Amino acid sequence: MNQGLGRASIRLKEPVYILNSASIVGTKEGQGPLGLLFDKVGEDDMFGCATWEEAESSLQKEAVGMALEKAGLVPENISFIFAGDLLGQSIATSFGISSYEIPLLGVYGACSTCGEALTLGVMSIAGGFADRAACVTSSHFASAEKEFRFPLEYGNQRPLSASWTVTGSAAFLLGNETAAGAAKIRDNGGPRAKITGMTVGKIVDYGLKDSMNMGACMAPAAASTLERHFIDFNSQPDDYDRIITGDLGKVGQTALVDLLKERGYDISSLHMDCGIEIYDAESQDTHAGGSGCGCSAVTLSAYILKQLEEKNWKKVLFLPTGALLSKTSFNEGKSVPGIAHCLILEAV
Are 237 and 166 in a shared domain? Predict the structure, then answer.
């Protein structure tokens, strides 16, 4: 059953549902505008662990556990789990969710990992290869700084274009309405939303090399995916209540709006960025805004799905963005390529 559309998109013949989800964040995120919406806020960012990396692993483990509990499911009900993080060899994932013994397909899309994981999870269900799938990702400010920049003890200064890596993790459970136990899912407060289409992004590299300006590096990829989405679906920005990027921040938001205007699309009145929403620009010193795999994930679970559930929004585009660099590529003077994956989320 061919569900492909255009060069890079998929229009689902039957929607795939977000059965339930859960989010857990650090103290800084809990103090932000969305603080009361997260399922759990940590008392300290070590989360009772000995290292930052172990703390991030614990975030993924707890997010998956909370999502399963909210949906009334157990690990044996899940066919596959799609998961990833920012750390080398995705160690937050491998050490975090191994105890669930769910068949794992590890993914890496930098800060777009949430979008990639959801896209692959939807494909597995829409293709008939799974009844249910789980998707989880995470990031941690301190582990990411150590991986990509400088240890916190170094105390380096950050430019105003820099973003703040979100400490948080969110897990999503996907399924279809024909799966056994659908009535039980509804009894447990789900499904939260339905996914009706996706546009898979391509790598876009404008040659930018400033790793402290991720928004500018990722904006071209976001513009490319959105343009392809509008073409493939024969749609316009006004067909959606919101167009939501993952973590472009204030600098990247300006760049994205300008790039799309050059291509004939004006999203200025509809655009929202998770990295801008998650922190208070006045009271929290995060410069350009939030970033990291956990940024779009926790904002989707805590805020975006809530707006769809309450019918404040009926249809949105969710577009996590990622900067595909490593500490090796950066130190060798390479540019920072970007990628972005787009999903259509609709109210049930």
Answer: no
End position of a domain, from candidates 134, 167, 187: 187
Instruction: Render each residue's pLDDT in the chain as its tens digit; 348 residues.
Output: 568 999 999 999 999 999 999 999 999 999 999 999 999 999 999 999 999 899 999 999 999 999 999 999 999 999 999 999 999 889 999 999 999 999 999 999 999 999 999 999 999 999 999 999 999 999 998 887 766 665 655 455 665 556 678 999 999 999 987 655 666 666 677 799 999 999 999 999 999 887 777 888 899 999 999 999 999 999 999 999 999 999 999 899 999 999 999 999 999 999 999 999 999 888 787 766 788 899 999 999 999 999 999 999 999 999 999 999 887 887 788 999 999 999 999 999
**Does residue 6 sit within a domain?**
no
Range of the domain at 322: 195-346
- What CA–CA distance (Å, rounded) separates 201 from 342? 7
The model's pTM is 0.94
Number of domains in the chain: 2
53: number of Cβ within 10 Å: 21
